[in-house]
From TrEMBL:
<feature type="domain" description="K Homology">
    <location>
        <begin position="96"/>
        <end position="167"/>
    </location>
</feature>
<dbReference type="GO" id="GO:0003677">
    <property type="term" value="F:DNA binding"/>
</dbReference>
<protein>
    <submittedName>
        <fullName>Poly(RC)-binding protein 3 isoform X9</fullName>
    </submittedName>
</protein>
<dbReference type="Pfam" id="PF00013">
    <property type="entry name" value="KH_1"/>
</dbReference>
<dbReference type="GO" id="GO:0003723">
    <property type="term" value="F:RNA binding"/>
</dbReference>
<feature type="domain" description="K Homology">
    <location>
        <begin position="12"/>
        <end position="80"/>
    </location>
</feature>
<dbReference type="InterPro" id="IPR036612">
    <property type="entry name" value="KH_dom_type_1_sf"/>
</dbReference>
<dbReference type="GO" id="GO:0005737">
    <property type="term" value="C:cytoplasm"/>
</dbReference>
<keyword id="KW-0694">RNA-binding</keyword>
<dbReference type="InterPro" id="IPR004087">
    <property type="entry name" value="KH_dom"/>
</dbReference>
<dbReference type="InterPro" id="IPR004088">
    <property type="entry name" value="KH_dom_type_1"/>
</dbReference>
<feature type="domain" description="K Homology">
    <location>
        <begin position="267"/>
        <end position="337"/>
    </location>
</feature>
<keyword id="KW-0677">Repeat</keyword>
<keyword id="KW-0238">DNA-binding</keyword>
<keyword id="KW-0963">Cytoplasm</keyword>
Length: 349
């Protein structure tokens, strides 16, 4: 069976999942989806990429073993091409290896490691690839990351041997299924900070600041017309749709810190909101981080009344200019967990 699988001749359907960073996913998808379309057509495997604005994405490859091997070969060679291209603009002399991360149920990792590490040692020696099985499970799942590094050819041979182990585990588990269902790993969206520059709101995505939805930008512009605002250093305004380069996440944090210059204000008015108790935690945030962020961004003073015994609601008092108050209200609503589109979770003034 092993020889047949390693030659890609066994017509058994397998599903293998990969964990990739956003940049790697972009490389696999290609311009207008052309690269992934070509991979699907030429390999015969089904290649699905998880949705969502997450730093990590799951790439699922399903098909007969020979189709899976072809898909992996195309991915490995694409990553090597990316490394080669990046080195042309780099002073580095040694070429880094291609690296892929598989997501494997923890129940299968024991077979992959083998008694005393014998199986994983055998795979390393016979393929020339580096294989590491993570000690901890991925967050909120019963799966582990298995990292494979090496040349594309070494990676392909390594994946073939891992497929053999998975097929053997499958045949065993049919006779005696493992206790408890596998909980698959699902990457969570990153909580992206919001910064303001040149009258435009931006969210941080990787090395760029991407323009934030128009509503928040307009509210911020209104607030800034009525409130002195500390300039954001050397940051230049960007046109809608243009990416604003950021040198590091530290720079983004510095920009966030400078937005606290909303201290002087013209004659203020006061507005009150009634918030359900079960949503107040989303607005306050851990150790008050979220409410402090809303105060800094909006320039408004925000006070949350103490809980009253027997009441299911809390009072929030917002003080500032009309624009400050509007921006604060917007940010408070945005902080709540999935506001109900029919108004059941919206706040009453």
């Amino acid at each position: 069976m092993e020889s047949k699988v390693s030659e890609g001749g066994l017509n058994v359907t397998l599903t293998i999942r990969l964990l990739m960073h956003g940049k790697e996913v972009g490389s696999i998808i290609g311009k207008k989806g052309e690269t992934v379309k070509k991979m699907r057509e030429e390999s015969g495997a089904r290649i699905n990429i998880s949705e969502g604005n997450c730093p990590e994405r799951i790439v699922t490859i399903t098909g007969p073993t020979d189709a899976i091997f072809k898909a992996f070969a195309m991915i490995a060679y694409k990553f090597e091409e990316d490394i080669t291209n990046s080195m042309s603009n780099s002073t580095a002399t040694s070429k880094p290896p291609v690296t892929l991360r598989l997501v494997v149920p923890a129940s299968q990792c024991g077979s992959l490691i083998g008694k005393g590490g014998s199986k994983i040692k055998e795979i390393r020696e016979s393929t020339g690839a580096q294989v590491q099985v993570a000690g901890d499970m991925l967050p909120n799942s019963t799966e582990r990351a298995v990292t494979i590094s090496g040349t594309p050819d070494a990676i392909i041979q390594c994946v073939k041997q891992i497929c053999v182990v998975m097929l053997e585990v499958q045949s065993v588990t049919k006779r005696s299924p493992p206790k408890g269902a596998t909980i698959p790993y699902r990457p969570k969206p990153a909580s992206t900070p919001v910064i303001f520059a040149g009258g435009q709101a931006y969210t941080i995505q990787g090395q760029y600041a991407i323009p934030h939805p128009d509503q928040l930008t307009k509210l911020h512009q209104l607030a800034m017309q009525q409130t002195p605002f500390t300039p954001l250093g050397q940051t230049t305004p960007a046109f809608p749709g243009e990416k604003l380069p950021l040198h590091s996440s530290e720079e983004a944090q510095n920009l966030m810190g400078q937005s606290s210059g909303l201290d002087a204000s013209p004659p203020a008015s006061t507005h009150e909101l009634t918030i359900p108790n079960d949503l107040i935690g989303c607005i306050i945030g851990r150790q008050g981080t979220k409410i402090n962020e809303i105060r800094q961004m909006s320039g408004a003073q925000i006070k949350i009344a103490n809980a009253t015994e027997g009441s299911s609601e809390r009072q929030i008092t917002i003080t500032g200019t009309p624009a400050n108050i509007s921006l604060a209200q917007y940010l408070i609503n945005a902080s709540s967990a999935d506001p109900d589109p029919h108004g059941r979770n919206t706040f009453t003034a």
